[in-house]
Amino acid sequence: MRSHYCGQLNKSLAGQTVELCGWVNRRRDLGGLIFIDMRDREGIVQVVVDPDMAQAHEVASQLRNEFCIKLTGEVRVRPDSQVNKDMTTGEVEVICKDLEIINRADVLPLDFNQTNTEEQRLKYRYLDLRRPEMSDRIKLRAKASSYVRRFLDDNGFLDIETPVLTKATPEGARDYLVPSRVQKGSFYALPQSPQLFKQLLMMSGFDRYYQIVKCFRDEDLRADRQPEFTQIDIETSFMSADQVRAKTEEMVHGMWKDLLNVDLGQFPTMPFSEAIRRFGSDKPDLRNPLELVDVADILKDVEFKVFAGPANDEKGRVAVIRVPGGAKLTRKQIDGYAEFVGIYGAKGLAWMKVNDRAAGMEGIQSPVAKFLNEEVINGILERTGAESGDIILFGADKANVVAEAMGALRLKVGIDLEITDLSAWKPLWVVDFPMFEEDGEGNLHAMHHPFTSPLGITAQQLKENPAAANSNAYDMVINGYEVGGGSVRIHNAEMQAAVFDILGIDAQEQQLKFGFLLEALKYGTPPHAGLAFGLDRLVMLLCGTENIRDVIAFPKTTTASCLLTDAPSLANPAALEELAIAVKVAKKDSE
Amino acid sequence: MRSHYCGQLNKSLAGQTVELCGWVNRRRDLGGLIFIDMRDREGIVQVVVDPDMAQAHEVASQLRNEFCIKLTGEVRVRPDSQVNKDMTTGEVEVICKDLEIINRADVLPLDFNQTNTEEQRLKYRYLDLRRPEMSDRIKLRAKASSYVRRFLDDNGFLDIETPVLTKATPEGARDYLVPSRVQKGSFYALPQSPQLFKQLLMMSGFDRYYQIVKCFRDEDLRADRQPEFTQIDIETSFMSADQVRAKTEEMVHGMWKDLLNVDLGQFPTMPFSEAIRRFGSDKPDLRNPLELVDVADILKDVEFKVFAGPANDEKGRVAVIRVPGGAKLTRKQIDGYAEFVGIYGAKGLAWMKVNDRAAGMEGIQSPVAKFLNEEVINGILERTGAESGDIILFGADKANVVAEAMGALRLKVGIDLEITDLSAWKPLWVVDFPMFEEDGEGNLHAMHHPFTSPLGITAQQLKENPAAANSNAYDMVINGYEVGGGSVRIHNAEMQAAVFDILGIDAQEQQLKFGFLLEALKYGTPPHAGLAFGLDRLVMLLCGTENIRDVIAFPKTTTASCLLTDAPSLANPAALEELAIAVKVAKKDSE
């Protein structure tokens, strides 16, 4: 029905007759001349309806915002004085010859010129998606998917679909369950990832697999989580961790180049331990130059127990952050930061302003200075390279509390004081993760997942000292977001059984849950490794938004509801009867 | 770890050293020389291990089938006498220099040289997929998906994901339900198709949408159905039915050309009524030249009630199929066909052999000839163009029974007598479907779905005579398989409400189930139309298999079980508690 998209019109089409279909973005009536800003998915163009075109003018006078219309007109170059530099089509306009209303619109429940509540926007999602800001994100997402597929296709990866109705797997989060009608009392689980299936595909010899696939986690949702999310899932055989990283880095590098014309450069590699030490996080935002600096050795002999305690505790840590220009922070701001680190379990926030580095102790302003002698203070100043006008912020506690609190504080201060370069792109690989985490009660949990291979040791060595083992896992981090993670997998049954043993999964449970995997490992399993990217997160970064709902066409709220369709909803009792399940009376408390 | 895939080796690499990774397909020990057929995803190559290479020979002597190995060797052109024309790599072999066992294999539970039960194959799917016949199908599927995506990307279609956790919709089949933990007592439904979401995307102005997406139907399964299946889902705005058909025909045409190097030609278009009349089916297999020929007018005055009854009944039909060369059918074969049509409700199968067309009534052999006079018989012979050696098979019953029974018989006879050209490709479009079907109790049901636009009439006209209305729907049929179907959708609220009324969906139910759609139709909805292809079926056709499980990596059985992972399975009682649902004691009968 159309010859061009509105957004495609330009000077080269001057004099041509075009047919357009789209929506009335705005209508203005200027002394007889009617101007229509007409919108379709590619953009907006100005249409002029002259009173001389009586029929078209009569129709145009009925138009209201968001009417769906079709028109025929001639492209005309605007006089220089009327060129609109804010519109991509601003050099031209369309002189309307014929105009037809395809469908009328009531007054919209959303006002595109104002800020609407997110609840309203989600309820009328189909209208919110008409806003160019929103539709551009969905279009960029489509381009990102398309880029990824072409890259992987061209690199010999096979797109293979894995089941959605599957068996519960132990990714750590809760599964969504689906009752079976045929086998009453039994349930499918929606996959948290296609992990085991992709490993089985390697055992089948497919060599290079990928899938862009929905995964599901029934978790309590945070701002950047959705119950269903999309993974770029990749697995390869006979490739080392280095090779997998190089290939997937090439892919992400190409995405940024292709979609944003940004060169991400080569991604540095950083061991997990270094990331925690320098940035207090396993997904450091390297746009922020602030670092944690360890000073336990300097403070271990002071009498001030707040510092000396953790400094002398094997599980403790004392670290400072030097904030250039931070001496200008007010007492109120510092109190705010003290409260902030409290969220992460820190009991307070000691600080030291360096008002005048040349003035010695006179130039130091700090509530804790009186507990420290000059040598100690000089030691800290020297190690951090502090200069006049800086502030030094102290973290002293259990090592994990210091890392989390100071890591978060680093990010916050970096943004607040405009130290973080928000226009930069800082990707990196984090590697050499510990194989297991201790849960505080002496139990070990897999840090990645139980199919991850340890790095450079035998099953016997792993059993002897599991806590010391590193895994051959890797995360890709961009600007502080973990956008992807993966590992070399275990490809022999003995190692797999050793890991299950360490995790306290007994033989019976191993058989019940992973019998097919242990069986499969017996038949010439190739070495294999892979990785999964969070597509939603990648697209968030590409779009420059921090709201995951902005990059999903029909997202759910933090209570996992769809405000548009009103899902979830009550089920038909007959359907439940057929499934042989009953709803138990809901408890008052949300439990 | 490899320099080449086994299947890629050819004469151009002669003299080169290659590194290969893969599996032992077969090992033969011929007087010291060990021959290994080594396999990877691209094919098989012969490796020769000479006793002179002592280390490699020692390793090679340990090899058993399906060991995973890595080797270095030199490509050598085979002497002419030893070229193996059955292998794509049969002109070369690899002289092994170095050989390493990566992983050993127990004796396989499947024997690749024998036929295994499908149950065994599904349980050890990862091994069954190692068979080139199987892996080729999965690879062809990946190529088909990739082709479709490139075509649609290049034609301006946007890949947009729609939710999996959604609200029950009325596609006709049972929904899979997913209990919500957050909103206890409420359920999501897995989508039977993204129908309403794709329509909403058109209302948002995305103009051209596609998605290759899993859909779900909790139906009793037949051989060619799976509980989860994959749809190529397409929707467009401002395009006519003709344009949608032309564009998607171009896509399928390109798939066959690209993947099979087959030119499907231009697809003919056939009205539903013609398809039923000539072939007794709305998905006619045009590889089969047999047709149903109506003869009610000839038979309406005969005394034989079996014919005259339906011939004079408005809802009856009398049709024959002339089978060239069918006079050779034995009595037993004909009895078999009579039994076969009984499955479709036919009460018998009258037949007439034309042993000698020149001999008049003498040349006719038929149990029913005695009930018919010469004029009637000649009328039938003339209309069908029967010749000596043919048989004429009769269907006389309610019109739908005749269509189903004779339509099925046509297919069966076509195969049995090798009349159907199994090497041919016969695509077509079936169009002009009735808008509604009557269920025998006076209720009308949507033949396509309730969002389908009627063809060329107003809402008022539709209400006045719904049974007479045709819809603007279309199916793509290839070789008797419905591979895709779609329609122009309703884009105004009045028409949509009229259809809901006719279907007996009252205002309250409309609001509850489709309130958001009716609301959305108020805001300048564009005309839109779309289509969905069954990817599994398309790939079945491309692969030349009739078993849908052959084209799915991890399929389910007809009881919707995964024999590999043993899904569905019992749920953790704590998980059910959290979901506030209880399993009711399973009844003895499967109900």
UniProtKB/TrEMBL annotation, chains A, B:
<dbReference type="Pfam" id="PF02938">
    <property type="entry name" value="GAD"/>
</dbReference>
<dbReference type="InterPro" id="IPR004364">
    <property type="entry name" value="Aa-tRNA-synt_II"/>
</dbReference>
<dbReference type="InterPro" id="IPR004365">
    <property type="entry name" value="NA-bd_OB_tRNA"/>
</dbReference>
<dbReference type="GO" id="GO:0003676">
    <property type="term" value="F:nucleic acid binding"/>
</dbReference>
<dbReference type="GO" id="GO:0005524">
    <property type="term" value="F:ATP binding"/>
</dbReference>
<feature type="region of interest" description="Aspartate">
    <location>
        <begin position="195"/>
        <end position="198"/>
    </location>
</feature>
<dbReference type="GO" id="GO:0006422">
    <property type="term" value="P:aspartyl-tRNA aminoacylation"/>
</dbReference>
<dbReference type="Pfam" id="PF01336">
    <property type="entry name" value="tRNA_anti-codon"/>
</dbReference>
<dbReference type="InterPro" id="IPR045864">
    <property type="entry name" value="aa-tRNA-synth_II/BPL/LPL"/>
</dbReference>
<dbReference type="InterPro" id="IPR012340">
    <property type="entry name" value="NA-bd_OB-fold"/>
</dbReference>
<dbReference type="InterPro" id="IPR047089">
    <property type="entry name" value="Asp-tRNA-ligase_1_N"/>
</dbReference>
<feature type="binding site">
    <location>
        <position position="226"/>
    </location>
    <ligand>
        <name>ATP</name>
    </ligand>
</feature>
<feature type="binding site">
    <location>
        <position position="448"/>
    </location>
    <ligand>
        <name>L-aspartate</name>
    </ligand>
</feature>
<feature type="binding site">
    <location>
        <position position="171"/>
    </location>
    <ligand>
        <name>L-aspartate</name>
    </ligand>
</feature>
<dbReference type="InterPro" id="IPR006195">
    <property type="entry name" value="aa-tRNA-synth_II"/>
</dbReference>
<dbReference type="InterPro" id="IPR029351">
    <property type="entry name" value="GAD_dom"/>
</dbReference>
<keyword id="KW-0067">ATP-binding</keyword>
<keyword id="KW-0030">Aminoacyl-tRNA synthetase</keyword>
<feature type="binding site">
    <location>
        <begin position="217"/>
        <end position="219"/>
    </location>
    <ligand>
        <name>ATP</name>
    </ligand>
</feature>
<dbReference type="InterPro" id="IPR047090">
    <property type="entry name" value="AspRS_core"/>
</dbReference>
<comment type="function">
    <text>Catalyzes the attachment of L-aspartate to tRNA(Asp) in a two-step reaction: L-aspartate is first activated by ATP to form Asp-AMP and then transferred to the acceptor end of tRNA(Asp).</text>
</comment>
<feature type="binding site">
    <location>
        <position position="489"/>
    </location>
    <ligand>
        <name>L-aspartate</name>
    </ligand>
</feature>
<dbReference type="GO" id="GO:0005737">
    <property type="term" value="C:cytoplasm"/>
</dbReference>
<keyword id="KW-0547">Nucleotide-binding</keyword>
<dbReference type="InterPro" id="IPR004115">
    <property type="entry name" value="GAD-like_sf"/>
</dbReference>
<dbReference type="GO" id="GO:0004815">
    <property type="term" value="F:aspartate-tRNA ligase activity"/>
</dbReference>
<feature type="binding site">
    <location>
        <position position="482"/>
    </location>
    <ligand>
        <name>ATP</name>
    </ligand>
</feature>
<keyword id="KW-0436">Ligase</keyword>
<protein>
    <recommendedName>
        <fullName>Aspartate--tRNA ligase</fullName>
        <ecNumber>6.1.1.12</ecNumber>
    </recommendedName>
</protein>
<dbReference type="InterPro" id="IPR002312">
    <property type="entry name" value="Asp/Asn-tRNA-synth_IIb"/>
</dbReference>
<feature type="binding site">
    <location>
        <begin position="534"/>
        <end position="537"/>
    </location>
    <ligand>
        <name>ATP</name>
    </ligand>
</feature>
<feature type="domain" description="Aminoacyl-transfer RNA synthetases class-II family profile">
    <location>
        <begin position="146"/>
        <end position="555"/>
    </location>
</feature>
<comment type="subunit">
    <text>Homodimer.</text>
</comment>
<keyword id="KW-0648">Protein biosynthesis</keyword>
<keyword id="KW-0963">Cytoplasm</keyword>
<comment type="similarity">
    <text>Belongs to the class-II aminoacyl-tRNA synthetase family. Type 1 subfamily.</text>
</comment>
<feature type="binding site">
    <location>
        <position position="217"/>
    </location>
    <ligand>
        <name>L-aspartate</name>
    </ligand>
</feature>
<dbReference type="InterPro" id="IPR004524">
    <property type="entry name" value="Asp-tRNA-ligase_1"/>
</dbReference>
<dbReference type="Pfam" id="PF00152">
    <property type="entry name" value="tRNA-synt_2"/>
</dbReference>
